[in-house]
Design brief:
The structure is a homodimer of 154-residue chains. With 154 residues, chain A is α+β, with helices and mostly antiparallel strands. Chain A has a four-stranded antiparallel β-sheet with strand order 3-4-2-5. At the A-B interface, helix 1, strand 1, strand 2, helix 4 and strand 3 of A face helix 1, strand 1, strand 2, helix 4 and strand 3 of B. The first copy, chain A, binds a DNA duplex (30 and 30 nucleotides) through helix 3.
DNA sequence: CTAGAGTTGGCAGATCATGCCAAACTTTGC
DNA sequence: GCAAAGTTTGGCATGATCTGCCAACTCTAG
């Protein structure tokens, strides 16, 4: 299995990052192949795990989920029990869209999606601050989007 | 145009958030409809802008893009020129996956994707810090992922 | 020049998308 | 309670698409 991706593979990934639902013939045209080898390359990229999957991108505000908040979290201690308890608990909250353990200034960072500031405040005080691992939380609230999306630079 | 989404619409969105490339018949089965009305609902959700689009989710590490960094940025001043200059410049950098202007402690927050720490350091010192708007930057580096993805809670 | 591996393009059958129409269901007004 | 109007559904036919298979092509090594 050749590990490298050639120019056509990269073009395929770029196209599918733009529109994950384009038909295979459309994709084949866009990258300059006939449908057969194009589909084979896509399947191979999926098998190799280069393509993790496909998702629909939903519009938060139109679903009543207009507020995104970035929260930085400090733990009381940094031992494994504290960390695991935090991870287990956080995984259960649907409001938490992303969460990472970090090194540096804080111990964890998360992106929380709710309807509005009031709902966020309820989440923070009723749930987040009640996790025994958590000592303190600081939030940054995006007011304007300069750039969004999860596309990787190819 | 009825603004509300019923239970079936929500189930459609949930399924398409999991697998944006499932066929319409598959989706219809999953939500308990026949293909015809199912497709009509999907098209309507797209027209209404509830579904913004579809994207392939790529595996960063397998593409040599293994490092994500969250950077908080402080501006020298908060006037419109400073902000616009920053926004214009940042939009051009492919390493910047997301970027928001914030209220609160810092002025902007961004997610940067690079191959490794060295590449990030080059980006920060050679590009980010040279934007005249920027006074200082603090970074948080995710070491472990507790939860990832861009799915909205439905 | 030849052998072999890897990749491509075309083809056939199965599956799927799409638009249309009648039937079923829900809502509204009387 | 009942009929009319509006909405949503399911089935069907047609055209497009997917998918696996095989022959032809390209490239490299000996």
């Amino acid at each position: 299995m050749s590990e490298i991706l050639d120019a056509i593979d990269r073009r395929i990934l770029r196209e599918l990052q733009r529109n994950g639902r384009m038909s295979n013939v459309e994709l084949a045209n866009a990258v300059g192949l006939s449908p057969s080898p194009c589909l084979r390359r896509v399947k191979l990229l999926e098998e190799k795990g280069v393509i993790d999957g496909y998702v629909a991108v939903l519009n938060g505000p139109k679903l009543g989920l207009g507020l995104t908040v970035f929260a930085r979290i400090w733990f009381k201690t940094q031992d494994a029990e504290t960390t695991n308890l935090f991870a287990e608990t956080v995984r259960k909250y649907p409001e938490v869209a992303e969460c990472y353990l970090t090194t540096g200034e804080c111990d964890a960072i998360m992106r929380v999606v709710t309807t509005d500031l009031h709902a966020y405040w309820r989440f923070q005080s009723d749930h987040l601050m009640r996790i025994p691992s958590v000592q303190s939380v600081k939030t940054d609230v995006p007011m304007e989007t300069i750039k969004a999306g999860q596309q990787l630079p190819l």
